[in-house]
Amino acid sequence: MDAVMNAAPLWVVILVKSAVLLLVVVTTFAYAMLFERKILAWMQLRPGPNRVGPWGLLQPAADAAKLILKEDLTPKTADPLIYRLAPFISLLTAFSVYAIIPFGASADGSAWAIGNVNAGILFVMAIASLGIYGISLGGWASGSKFPLLGSVRSTAQMISYELSMSLSFVGVLILAGTTSLDGIVNAQQRWWFLLPQFVGFVIYVITAVAETNRTPFDLVEAETELVGGFHTEYSGLRFGLFFIAEYVNMLTVACIATLLFLGGWNAPFGLGMVPGIVWFIAKVACFMFFYIWLRGTLPRFRYDRLMAFGWKVLLPIATLNLIATAVWVAYWGK
Amino acid sequence: MTMTTPLTPEIVSHEGNSMVLSMGPQHPSTHGVLQLMLEIEGETVAKIDAEIGYLHTGIEKSAENLFWSQAQTVIERMDYLAPESNALCYVLACEKLLGITGEIPERANQIRVLFGELTRLASHCVWLGTHAIDIGAITVFFHCFDLRENILDLQEAAGGARMHPNYMRIGGVNGDLPAGFLDKLDALIEKFPKLMRDLRGLLQANPIFQDRTIDVGILPAEEAVRWSVTGPALRASGIAYDVRKAFPYCGYDQYTFDVPTRTEGDAYARFLVRLDEMEESMRIVAQVRKRLDVPGPVMTSNPKVAAPPKETIALSMEALIHHFKIVSEGFRVPPGDVYHAVESPRGELGYYIVSDGGNRPYRVRTRPPSLYNLQALRGIAPGNFIADLVVMIGSLDPVFGEVDR
């Protein structure tokens, strides 16, 4: 395998890796969606999808076929170019993050990732912030009132939560002393950053939910208030693209949480015989389950309360956490 | 209140920073087909106009063309979440007009109270589920419907249909409770406390839910009276008016129950009042259950309104004639008019019925509690967010079959 990889030109290797990864991420997305529906159904006293294939396992394929076959409408009042472009912005940014996310490490310590950027975490933050353009432009360009309200909400929500999220990262960066993602994972071999950065982890989880517009922070698409929010006017595949982007973003924040706080592919309790990738997947799955659990349990925040919570509670706590971490590292070392 | 120009979807903006938004009639949280014309500034509601009538089905007019007993089938469909309340109120009004209120057998009254309370429970289940969905908690809905399912099973067993059993009759109820009914009822009474605990546990102490409902849509007592609000919405504002206590019917005065009231008048108070009411309803159901062990007739023996027993038809000429008359042309009701009210899950439900002495009602005028309660929205909505507006609609619990009729 290594011999083949070494012989092929770099661009071929990257292309093959990207294609495989894209396939993996899309499949994971499809089954994350089924997983969510099954878990929700279990919480809600119902069987969930079980008609298409055994245990409903082909449901994602049926959903995809349905969305592709639906008519793709563009409202008369919409700005056609931006309206059509917006879902791709969301999708592109959602997938781009995977270019640098490491899923495990070989025995020689090199990370399993397409690109190993030494400013990995900054790249993640930059790309994640861009993703919001898809939502706010899509809603705005729809030329309709409910999507407009949704896109205004999304912009405000993003600004309020991105800041606290970044601050929760910085605590980890100080402890790890590096911004590369595999460096951060390697720094967690002794203990996970969940322990020293517990406050940071809680802030990250809250902001991550807000970042991906999920319950209880799903104000952007608050169905019972804004009909469909930013995607009210979207139909067919374009709606599907937003949908994929949302779930891929969920997976992304679950991966980031695993890498930054849950030790990445490091095995807990010295259970080293199980391969690291299994641990990685297990941790991501746990985080996804937590997400779905939240959705099954909590009501939605109100818009103004969400903003107040972001600015008046999360931001001060994140700042204090950062200062405390910095002081601790400066005086007592690592 | 000053009259303002009506808001229409064509108006893009009234002035300055405002935007006119048409919420409904297909909006997910307008509970059916309410259209709200909003003038919003940002997300704050400045003005609100409720457009009703999308579900107008002409039930009152249809009733005028049906026999007295047939009219009840359409009347049940007004408030489709509490059909038994509508049917009960209508038959009570007719009985008053016929002057046979005193002839209703004891057991028939007990069964009426039983279904009056079960339908209240079922209706409050739908309210709680949809209210929770409006606020974003999706799971509560399924647990509510799980409880409601038990009640629909009971309705099906007794009346043959799940939603509109048409079980009440002028003069009693349609047949005695079927075999096995009381066991099912016992099972429900048995597991109700646990189900109720689960429902409360899902929302009552949830900080986000409290944040969304406390101090939202405050309806002061005098305002509530001014808008003719009744039912849980009125009781949450501190006025303990309940038709079952104020003007007891069907022997409600023989049962022990409390009328839950709160003084805050906000959406959370209305939520608590309804939950307490569900428990009080179950208290009444348990008391009725104890009395149902004693058998007895469930229909008046007055041949004027009740068909004679089937087995007598072959033996008696008069029985055959009465049976034929009641089936083919119904019965006649003496001329006059009457108003009767019951406590439906949404408030004071009243029927004003006029008879010209014929075999069909001359006029059936409804006082639907939802219509009056909904009007209060105009008083409490302006100045709040769209998100709060959704909570307010939910907490007033309108049913549009009843508002538009």
The largest sheet of chain A, given as strand count, sense and whether it forms a barrel, is: none
The CATH architecture name of chain B reads Orthogonal Bundle
Q: Into which percentage range does the β-strand content of chain A fall?
A: under 5%
Helix/strand/pairing class of chain A, anyone? mainly alpha
Side by side, the strands of the main sheet of chain B go 1-2-3
Q: Structural class of chain B, please?
A: mainly alpha
User: What summary fits the major beta sheet of chain B?
Assistant: 3 strands, antiparallel
Task: Tell me the radius of gyration of chain A.
Answer: 20 Å
Order of helices and strands of chain B: EEEHHHHHEEHHHHHHHHEEEHHH
Low-confidence spans of chain A: none
* CATH homology group of chain B: Cytochrome-c3 Hydrogenase, chain B
CATH class membership of chain B:
Mainly Alpha
Using only C-alpha atoms, the radius of gyration of chain B works out to 22 Å
What is the number of strand segments of chain A? Answer: 0
- Average pLDDT rating of chain B: 86
> Helix proportion of residues of chain A, in percent?
55-70%
Tally of domains of chain B: 1
What string, H for helix and E for strand, traces the elements of chain A in order?
Answer: HHHHHHHHHHHH
Head-to-tail CA distance between termini of chain B: 26 Å
Tell me the β content of chain B: 5-15%
For this structure, the quaternary state is heterodimer
